[in-house]
Design goal:
The chain has 2 domains: 1-67 and 154-238, Rossmann fold (3-Layer(aba) Sandwich), CATH 3.40.50; 80-152, no CATH class. Helix 6 (167-182) links the parallel strand 6 and strand 7 (186-190). Strands 5-6-7-3-8-9 form a 6-stranded mixed beta sheet, sandwiched between helices. The radius of gyration is 18 Å and the shape is globular. The protein is an alpha/beta fold and 238 residues long. The protein has 9 helices and 9 strands.
């Protein structure tokens, strides 16, 4: 497996202070990394840094072997306004191709084929002409996942992708992401769902004001921080 992202002793934050520091982790091709941490621990700031939208205060975030932030397809958390977007599924998925088109003003055959193939891959080709805002939450997330794949197919960065979904839709989405990962796509997922994180992820990055853990999921389960976090999560969900 080849390295795609290397983070060395990075500190992240804003002009008024550091949010998190001491970040050290690596993402290799085919990895499934889940980022855990409490609210305000720096997960959102890390997402911005990985997408190339915000530089680190110190340390290094390095893209390797020709990989760059442009190779990351991003699935952000949805707002109520976005859920009510009045466009067809096909239009939403196609919009993922915009970054590849340069100054060309129309979708070409290549972009249309990519969108169609991606909708088929994610099992939403029958929804192609439906209005996005009329879909269920699970269907909308599949559409946005297809859009992200059209933007970049080497890595997906997912920010709390199951928020607001019912348990059945959550399971379907997790299984779909796992299938994409097995096909060779690297996954970085920000989540509060510790049970699903340890079920699907190959690696865990647990952050706070400082990095608490990075490594294989099996090692996380046996670590002091992992045991403490899993126990606390279990008590909250009893």
């Amino acid at each position: 497996m080849s390295e795609q992202i290397i983070c060395k002793n990075a500190a992240l934050g804003y002009e008024d202070g550091i949010v998190t520091e001491g970040l050290n982790f690596t993402v290799n091709s085919g990895d499934y990394l889940c980022i855990l941490g409490e609210n305000g621990s720096g997960k959102s700031t890390l997402i911005k840094a990985l997408l190339g939208l915000k530089p680190q205060i110190s340390g290094e975030i390095k893209w390797c072997g020709g990989f760059s932030a442009k190779d990351i397809g991003y699935l952000p958390q949805q707002t109520p306004v976005q859920r009510d977007f009045p466009a067809s599924v096909r239009e939403v998925v196609l919009s993922g191709c915009l970054s590849k088109m340069g100054f060309f003003p129309f979708y070409r055959a290549a972009e249309k084929k990519l969108a169609k193939d991606t909708m088929k891959q994610l099992g939403i080709e029958s929804l192609e002409n439906k209005c996005y805002r009329e879909l269920s939450g699970g269907q909308q997330q599949r559409v946005l996942l297809a859009r992200a794949l059209c933007a970049a197919s080497r890595m997906l960065l997912l920010d709390e992708p199951v928020t607001g979904l019912d348990p059945h839709a959550q399971t379907e989405l997790y299984e779909l992401v796992a299938k994409l990962n097995k096909s060779g796509i690297s996954i970085i997922m920000v989540s509060h769902d510790i049970a699903s994180a340890v079920k699907y992820a190959s690696h865990i990055l647990h952050i706070s004001k400082k990095q608490l853990f990075f490594g294989k999921t099996s090692d996380y389960l046996n670590s002091p921080v992992g045991k403490k976090y899993i126990e606390g999560w279990g008590n909250e969900n009893e």
